[in-house]
């Protein structure tokens, strides 16, 4: 047998202290993006916005990567949103998963994109690029987000229009959900932009914040540390540039042990 092939996970191959969960469904959005859902182990608790290590046995060894849990903490199933890297050690295999397959899930979720890491405020800005929308997919489906904030603004920027579909489907699903519909109401705003293809809203979120178009498009006042809170998830460069803009507006970075005005997730970048 080819040692580079992903093997079916036989019970003997499951590393100790790790869950092996069943894939329930897989949706491919583009050549480079897909979503999948798995069963959730009894006793696997997490806070909306956290990430966990997920993996596969590749060759003879388990291989893990950090993934934000995209489903909210109350949901029965786990959802993940992933890129496909053609030669990626994990994603080249992960992109082939089918319903019924098993994935490995480490037991300890963690992360800084959690409501507990923010001080109270009125407006929550969730800034994402690419698959950085995943932790926010969790948070915008959590009723606690709307108990804590009067308004929640999700921004999602991708190169091409097709990459925005996961976010549009998500918001549509919330609007059609019997329970979430009433909780979310008009509190959630979704601002989607592209940078390399025609779309009604175009440009990097950093440029749109700087030139004010983001605020005028949504009819919102400039960022204000008295009322506004933020979370940022994207590439290393995007995190750095967005963080600088929030700091320039007077917001301070927080953490689990020191809540403040905004938080960023560094776990996914090298
Ligand atoms: P751009 O097309 O101008 O590079 P990537 O796939 O490279 O992570 O990019 C995802 C999205 O994030 C793209 O729309 C990209 O815009 C944007 N982006 C990349 N770097 C930054 C940055 N430093 N600040 C804000 N947005 C960025």
Automatic annotation (TrEMBL):
<keyword id="KW-0285">Flavoprotein</keyword>
<keyword id="KW-0274">FAD</keyword>
<comment type="similarity">
    <text>Belongs to the ferredoxin--NADP reductase type 1 family.</text>
</comment>
<keyword id="KW-0521">NADP</keyword>
<dbReference type="GO" id="GO:0034599">
    <property type="term" value="P:cellular response to oxidative stress"/>
</dbReference>
<protein>
    <recommendedName>
        <fullName>ferredoxin--NADP(+) reductase</fullName>
        <ecNumber>1.18.1.2</ecNumber>
    </recommendedName>
</protein>
<dbReference type="InterPro" id="IPR017938">
    <property type="entry name" value="Riboflavin_synthase-like_b-brl"/>
</dbReference>
<dbReference type="Pfam" id="PF00970">
    <property type="entry name" value="FAD_binding_6"/>
</dbReference>
<feature type="domain" description="FAD-binding FR-type">
    <location>
        <begin position="16"/>
        <end position="116"/>
    </location>
</feature>
<dbReference type="InterPro" id="IPR033892">
    <property type="entry name" value="FNR_bac"/>
</dbReference>
<dbReference type="InterPro" id="IPR051930">
    <property type="entry name" value="FNR_type-1"/>
</dbReference>
<dbReference type="GO" id="GO:0004324">
    <property type="term" value="F:ferredoxin-NADP+ reductase activity"/>
</dbReference>
<dbReference type="InterPro" id="IPR039261">
    <property type="entry name" value="FNR_nucleotide-bd"/>
</dbReference>
<keyword id="KW-0560">Oxidoreductase</keyword>
<dbReference type="GO" id="GO:0042167">
    <property type="term" value="P:heme catabolic process"/>
</dbReference>
<dbReference type="InterPro" id="IPR008333">
    <property type="entry name" value="Cbr1-like_FAD-bd_dom"/>
</dbReference>
<dbReference type="InterPro" id="IPR017927">
    <property type="entry name" value="FAD-bd_FR_type"/>
</dbReference>
């Amino acid at each position: 047998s080819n040692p580079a092939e992903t093997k079916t996970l036989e019970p003997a191959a499951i590393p100790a202290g790790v869950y092996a969960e069943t894939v329930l469904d897989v949706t491919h959005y583009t050549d480079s993006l897909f979503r999948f859902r798995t069963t959730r182990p009894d006793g696997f608790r997490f806070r909306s916005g956290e990430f966990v290590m997920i993996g596969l046995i590749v060759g003879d060894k388990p291989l893990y990567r950090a993934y934000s849990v995209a489903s909210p903490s109350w949901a029965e199933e786990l959802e993940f949103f992933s890129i496909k890297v053609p030669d990626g050690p994990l994603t080249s295999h992960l992109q082939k998963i089918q319903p019924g397959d098993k994935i490995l899930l480490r037991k300890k979720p963690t992360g800084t994109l959690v409501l507990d890491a923010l001080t109270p405020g009125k407006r929550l800005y969730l800034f994402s690029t690419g698959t950085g929308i995943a932790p926010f997919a969790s948070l915008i489906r959590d009723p606690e987000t709307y108990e804590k904030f009067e308004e929640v603004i999700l921004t999602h920027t991708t190169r091409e229009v097709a990459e925005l579909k996961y976010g549009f489907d998500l918001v549509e699903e919330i609007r059609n959900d019997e329970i979430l519909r009433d909780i979310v109401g008009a509190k959630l705003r979704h601002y989607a932009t592209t940078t390399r293809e025609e779309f009604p809203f175009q440009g990097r979120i950093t440029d749109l914040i700087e030139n004010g178009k983001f605020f005028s498009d949504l009819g919102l006042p400039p960022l204000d540390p008295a009322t506004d809170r933020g979370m940022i998830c994207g590439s290393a460069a995007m995190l750095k540039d967005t963080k600088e803009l929030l700091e320039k507006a007077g917001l301070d970075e927080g953490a689990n042990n020191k809540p403040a005005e905004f938080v960023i997730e560094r776990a996914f970048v090298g």
